[in-house]
Prior knowledge:
Layout: H1 3-17, H2 24-40, H3 45-59, H4 62-65, H5 70-86, E1 101-106, H6 113-126, E2 131-135, H7 143-154, E3 157-159, H8 167-180, E4 185-189, H9 198-211, E5 215-221, H10 226-238, E6 243-247, H11 256-265, E7 269-273, E8 281-283, H12 286-293, H13 299-309, H14 312-323, H15 329-341, H16 345-350, H17 357-363, H18 367-379, H19 382-386, H20 393-403, H21 407-428, H22 431-437
Parallel strand pairs: 1-4, 1-5, 2-3, 2-4, 5-6, 6-7
Antiparallel strand pairs: 7-8
Helix pairs in contact: 1-2, 1-5, 2-3, 3-5, 5-12, 6-7, 8-9, 10-11, 15-18, 18-20, 20-21, 21-22
Amino acid sequence: MFEALTDRLQGVFKRLTGQGRLTPDNIREGLREVRRALLEADVQVAVARDFVARVEARAVGEDVLKSLTPGQQVVGIVRDELESLLGKTPVALAGSPHLPTVVLLAGLQGSGKTTFAGKLALWLKQREKRALLASADVYRPAAIDQLERVAGQAGAGFWRAPDGTPPREIATLALGEARRRGFDFLVLDTAGRLHIDAELMAELQDLKRASRAHQVLLVVDGMTGQEAVRIGETFATQVGVDGLVLTKMDGDARGGAALSLRQVTGKPILFLGVGEKLDGLEVFQPDRLAGRILGMGDVVGLVERARAAVDEKEAERLSERMRRAEFTLEDFLEQLRQMKKMGPLEDLMKMVPGMPRGALAQAKPDNDRLTKYEAILLSMTVKERRLPRVIDGSRRRRIAAGSGTTVTEVNRLLKDFDQARALMKRLRHGPRGLAGLRGRR
């Protein structure tokens, strides 16, 4: 989402850090570019102006101008102020000492409330908390059915009110049901509208009182730009919200809502929704998002993705097999599956610190190839995966036909596998093996 902004900012920083000596004029010129980049990313005008003013006030000080690396100092100040703009420290979803904790979801129609309800339930389940999902949306056709389906996918509880029950009574009955069944959380989905109106605001206020909500989370479509800021302001003022959720943050919009909403509403961003799958939910980490926006990577995020996707015992087993040169196509298939769980390769590469944008564009990780490789491996028999040497010409044709690929693609997979095994054999010999890779004996 922030690719265009990242590119612009990196261009500005490259010019600043490339100069041995900086003057107030150099800095102001660079910050004018930063301001333009923020505005192009859909950051609210007042927010962009105040941000640049704060950076300039610190950057033209004597300590920066007389330092040995003034350009790097300016970059550091921009990062500090960006973190402050985003909230500086992460804010957790607050629980209540009196169960269940009631989370009321508010937002316009199409903002992703129902999908987020499922994502939140799954996130809570992973933290050993039981959530009951209920819907007070009696207007949108099949809204309650959709929530039931999402709850099932998340492995969460679901409760449906009798037909004709008004929203306020649904909230009261759902709270009683969650208490009776001993749930830790009640996640109450609500109706949205295409536009903000007095009727919607009144209903949400009523639901907030009836459900005794501990947390009102405003779910905002991150792709709506400046409109998201107006929506956030209105809900915060008229309903009262405790936290913000930005959905569709993996889209191709400019993403300025994330940089404006907290400043304008005064409310913390708790979660980012990425992707349509229920595991596509990230706890909002201001420092890490600031690093990604500035092209500094996100090592912690990368490690967390790896931990979530990779089974430690399986990883140890594969590692041991690699050391013994016992790596088979079955192991290769398991590794491919674990890589796919971590998400698209280009997203992972962006999280590596210092990864040049040009190199990233040049690399163009081929996710389609991984999908084809998985299909090819699944088209093989167990014997073929364990003993690749038995795969002759006729077997290759059968595997290609069974996987919907070509013999050329089957050959490419086998070649890549052979190269990986050869590399592992070299690495077993330590420095001597590495020297061999460089062509020295």
